[in-house]
Design goal:
- With 666 residues, the chain is mostly beta strands.
- The protein has one domain: Maltoporin, Chain A (Beta Barrel).
- 5% of the residues lie in helices and 49% in strands.
- The chain contains 2 helices and 32 strands.
- The strands form 6 sheets. It has a 22-stranded antiparallel β-barrel. Strands 1-4 form a two-stranded antiparallel sheet. It has a two-stranded antiparallel sheet with strand order 2-3.
- β18 and β19 form a beta hairpin.
- The N terminus is likely disordered.
Length: 666
């Protein structure tokens, strides 16, 4: 409740600020032509308009990254704005548990709670931008989908002074779902601030992240086979394994979860740096521009994290839990499992810059301390610590052709002692057209997640002993962003792979696993306005390994595109997403885990989506009719033919979406 009050306060303050600005502009518009203001300055509306009045210089850098980036103004890819990429699927509704079609392991040592079914919806520290803007910039987004699905986005950044920038991002999603007991809602908020002193010696970075995912868990349909014989062609008629049976109604404004999961993540980060080096200045007329070339930097970073994972059923059905999940419960009492973790991290490092004029060449050495704490029924007030050291060397040449980075982190002492992560990346611009080559190597060694080890209140059977998961990752990429092509290759060797062999049983596969994947993404220009976009991934894994993934995942887009009239940018066409048959992991709602199963094969038709995307000046519109493939009847039914994302979890039928994204320069 406190989080909602904070969000409401920020949104109210922001709306009032915008209304005040609009009212002021409206009042100015009503003043008579040719009048002067109180200072005697002319405000004649017939004077020549300044062509730069609506211009802006806006760029950003990501957390722990010095590369300068610009906002994406393209319109041909809807998934730039959608919370999930096409490579990730959910359980039939936006906001429900997710899993990727592409295989990947956790490649980070240290603490991990082990609950990742809703990670794909979160704002992350890695993707946090720090902006620099010459004028206040605001972006508003609204997406309306079928069955009352809604997505709202607000983004604002501005420089209060030349030295201080702040930004605010908020995203809210609410979707009642396509079947019963499937409503889900998301709340994500990110606040950043960046300050640099006038003499450029001191810098401060602040980040606040707040993520909440609340999703009903229905356990899948009781009789999914009835989808082909619905009287009203509405899957809402069918009963689900969890949740209140009988009459149920969709409510697009309902955010209450009676049976389901609620995951919360809050992060507060404050980084401070102070530089020693050489100062300089440039004087132009009466303006002095201060320059500073750092040679030695002192850096301190403090991070506070809180994580909460809850599953609750306020009206459990004893027979349903026993029949469908083999779990004994008492229907007279509520079911509730909750894990709560608090982490405090403090690290200090020294950064040396060998070259005066190249801030992208540096050596960083540091160490840090993390305090872990939780309260469990069997381990009251459990707490531990981690002591680690880390180092980074980066060298991006001044001609921007070569970029080399090597980094490593070793947990020296504490609960995760022996965990490490080492990586090396090298990239090269090959020609003047922007063709690049990247190669990389990573080796990580990590302790199993805490819920695998029994440090949880969820009914998860713990591992017997600790066997660290080790992953060797080698990858390469060749591409050209301007020409729209990218070829990549990835090889992974995994030892002691951690997975769930059933909904309640954590397990370790002790044999080595080899995984190979390759990606081809390219743009084929058919004619002046017709373009074909291809993205195809092929992945191979050892047949005996407890990993089930599709051999091929492909997205094909045929689009009619171009700039028409004066301000219209158009992209319209057909999109198809296809994956080969595979034994998709089943999902256990009680523990929030996807687990291995060998009895159900996922046979899906290619997903077909028709789209009309356009941009007029700073206004973007997205009109989409998705899942057209469900309209094609089968020999047994004339109704919708649904694709499935997991056993007993159908996807949506034909789905209509309309979205707008509008940015303003204040």
């Amino acid at each position: 409740m406190l989080m909602y009050k904070r969000i409401l306060f920020f949104l109210t303050a922001y709306i009032l600020f915008q209304m005040g600005a609009i009212a002021q502009n409206f009042g100015n518009a009503l003043r008579p032509i040719g009048r002067s203001n109180g200072s005697g300055q002319s405000i004649d509306s017939l004077q020549k308009r300044d062509q730069n009045a609506d211009s802006i210089t806006l760029f950003y850098k990501l957390y722990n990254n010095n590369d300068i980036r610009k906002l994406d103004s393209s319109i041909n890819d809807f998934f730039v704005h959608y919370p999930l990429p096409y490579t990730t699927y959910n359980l039939g509704n936006l906001g429900t548990a997710t899993k990727s079609y592409l295989f990947s392991t956790q490649k980070k040592g240290g603490f991990d709670a082990g609950f990742h079914a809703y990670d794909a919806y979160n704002y992350t520290l890695t993707a946090t931008p720090f902006y620099q803007s010459t004028r206040p910039y605001t972006e508003l987004g609204y997406l309306l989908g079928g069955k009352g699905e809604q997505l709202i986005e607000v983004k604002h950044t501005q420089n209060k002074t030349q030295q201080l920038n702040f930004s605010f991002e908020y995203r809210f999603s609410n979707s009642p779902g396509n079947v019963k007991n499937q409503n889900a809602n998301l709340n994500n908020m990110r606040i950043t601030a960046h300050f640099q002193s006038k003499r450029k010696r001191y810098e401060s970075y602040f980040v606040m992240l707040a993520n909440k995912a609340a999703s009903s868990e229905n356990g899948g349909l009781v009789r999914a086979s009835l989808l082909d014989s619905l009287s009203l062609n509405n899957p809402y008629e069918l009963e689900t394994r969890l949740g209140v049976s009988g009459a149920s109604f969709r409510n697009p404004f309902n955010t209450t979860i009676a049976t389901g999961s609620t995951y919360k993540n809050n992060t507060y980060l404050w980084r401070q740096t102070y530089d020693l080096g050489q100062k300089d200045s440039i004087v132009k007329d009466t303006v002095t521009i201060h320059l500073f070339y750092p040679r030695l930097r002192f850096q301190n970073e403090v991070k506070l994290e809180s994580n909460q994972f809850v599953f609750e059923d306020r009206a459990p059905n004893e027979l349903s839990y026993l029949q469908y999940f083999n779990y004994k419960t008492n229907s007279a009492t509520n079911i509730k499992f909750a894990d709560s973790w608090n982490l405090v991290t403090n690290d200090f490092s020294l950064i040396s810059f060998p070259q005066k004029n190249n801030a992208n060449q540096f050596l960083q050495i540091g160490s840090g301390y993390t305090h872990l704490a939780t309260t469990l029924s069997s381990f009251q007030n459990w707490s531990e610590y981690d002591l680690y050291g880390f180092g980074v060397y980066k060298n991006k040449t001044r001609n921007q052709l070569w970029d080399f980075i090597a980094s490593g982190k070793l947990f020296i002492n504490g609960y995760h002692a022996g965990d490490y992560d080492a990586q090396v990346y090298l990239s090269r611009i090959l020609n003047s057209k922007g063709t690049y080559l990247k190669i990389g190597f990573q080796n990580s060694n990590r302790t199993p997640s805490t819920n695998y080890l029994g440090l949880t209140q969820f009914p998860i059977n713990a591992l017997k002993g600790i066997k660290k998961e080790n992953t060797v990752d080698m990858n390469g990429e060749l591409g050209n962003a301007a020409k729209g092509f990218r070829i990549s290759f990835n090889y992974q060797l995994i030892n002691n792979y951690n997975y769930f062999s059933s909904g309640f049983q954590s397990a370790v596969y002790t044999k080595p696993i080899s995984y190979i994947s390759s990606l081809l993404a390219n743009k084929i220009k058919i004619s002046k306005h017709w373009n074909w976009y291809n993205e195809t991934t092929v992945q191979i894994v050892d047949q005996s390994a407890p990993i089930h993934i599709p051999l091929i995942l492909s997205r094909q887009r045929l689009a009619f595109e171009g700039n028409f009239y004066k301000n219209l940018n158009l992209s319209t066409g057909l999109e198809m997403i296809y994956h080969t048959d595979f034994k998709a992991d089943d999902y256990m709602p009680i523990t929030g885990q996807f687990y291995l199963q060998n009895s159900y094969m996922l046979h899906n038709r290619p997903t077909a989506n028709a789209f009309l995307h356009f941009m007029i000046k700073r206004f973007k519109g997205y009109i989409r009719l998705e899942n057209l493939n469900t309209l094609v009847p089968t020999s047994n039914s004339l109704g919708n033919t649904y694709n499935f994302t997991a056993k007993d979890y159908p996807g949506t039928g034909t789905w209509f979406r309309v979205g707008i994204w509008w940015n303003f320069i204040n």
